[in-house]
Design a protein that fits this description.
The chain is mainly α. The protein is built from twelve helices and two strands; from the N terminus they run H-H-H-E-E-H-H-H-H-H-H-H-H-H. Strands 1-2 form a two-stranded antiparallel sheet. A hairpin with a 2-residue loop joins strand 1 and strand 2.
Length: 290
């Protein structure tokens, strides 16, 4: 236990004859707190040993010590992130294309290229009917808006239901029988309904891929099919009121704005849904060849 004897009393003890030996006096020699050697010993115990430069002791700058303990790992950057979340979605989607569909494509082709398709009118009608069911569902979801963010995507100018209704009416006037929606369309529409009620990030992934894919590859497919079975007639499905590029840009900005409120985990969850979107859309597209 530390002694409580005052310093003055300790000094009087040292003045007594029995404590006059040189060795004992040296062990009790007073130490100045300003002494460089004392400061060095204290600093060494604290783990902050100073460096010696030109014979003088120097302490390392505090900023160096702090930076060594608080340095953080560089933040991971995702492909396309700097341009906004839509660019991230586009990057992931492009990788799910084949090389003949997109230069970034990484998927192996699972059938002949579009140029070699042999479509039928009946198959094309099934494709159009199922597509209309999916677009009806999408437009109904954003009108109902189970999540506030969905309301951002009302009346974007990309809507296709009304255009498809006109096309199906035209086919009916030509004497064709309009079929009922088939399994691919019904399955996808039901999935979108369920997803929209509980998982907005995943739903937005489908929303983006359906509309943007149709404005790009979808138009090319429509043109090729029309050349083979419709005497090059351009359907309303592939027409937009206004400048399509501007309509798409407006929706990009809205999508980026909505995604700004998401965490990185929510964004990744959205991106992970891309493959499902391609699967469901692919099942409907293949109806053209049925």
């Amino acid at each position: 236990m530390a002694s409580l004897t005052p310093v003055s009393q300790s000094q009087s003890l040292l003045d007594k004859p029995q404590f006059k030996s040189p060795a004992l006096q040296a062990s009790f020699a007073p130490v100045s707190l300003r002494s460089p050697s004392f400061r060095f010993r204290v600093l060494r115990k604290l783990g902050s040993v100073p460096s010696r430069r030109g014979g003088a002791l120097e302490m390392a700058p505090k900023s160096v010590i702090v930076s060594a303990t608080t340095a953080e790992k560089p933040k991971k950057r995702y492909p396309g992130e700097a341009k906004g979340f839509v660019e991230e979605m586009r990057f992931v989607a492009m990788k799910l294309h084949t090389r003949d569909q997109a230069k970034e494509g990484e998927k192996e082709p699972q059938g002949p290229p579009v140029a070699k398709w042999e479509p039928s009118v009946d198959g094309y009608l099934r494709f159009l009917v199922d597509s209309k069911l999916v677009y009806d569902t999408l437009e109904g979801i954003v009108q109902k808006a189970a999540f506030d963010s969905y309301a951002e995507f009302r009346n974007t100018g990309l809507e296709r239901s009304e255009k498809l209704a006109k096309d199906l009416e035209w086919f009916k006037e030509q004497g064709y029988t309009i079929p009922e929606p088939s399994t691919p369309g019904v399955t996808y529409a039901r999935y979108l309904e369920e997803l929209s009620e509980k998982d907005p990030q995943a739903f937005i992934c489908h929303f983006y891929n359906i509309y943007f894919a149709h404005s790009a590859g979808g138009r090319m497919i429509g043109k090729k099919v029309a050349e083979k079975i419709l005497d090059k007639k351009a359907l309303e499905f592939y027409k937009w009121d206004g400048d399509l590029s501007q309509l798409l840009q407006n929706v990009r900005e809205k999508l980026n704005k909505v995604a700004e409120g998401w965490t990185r985990e929510e964004k990744n969850h959205c991106l992970e849904e891309t493959e499902k979107s391609f699967k469901y859309s692919g099942d409907i597209l293949r109806l053209i060849l049925s």
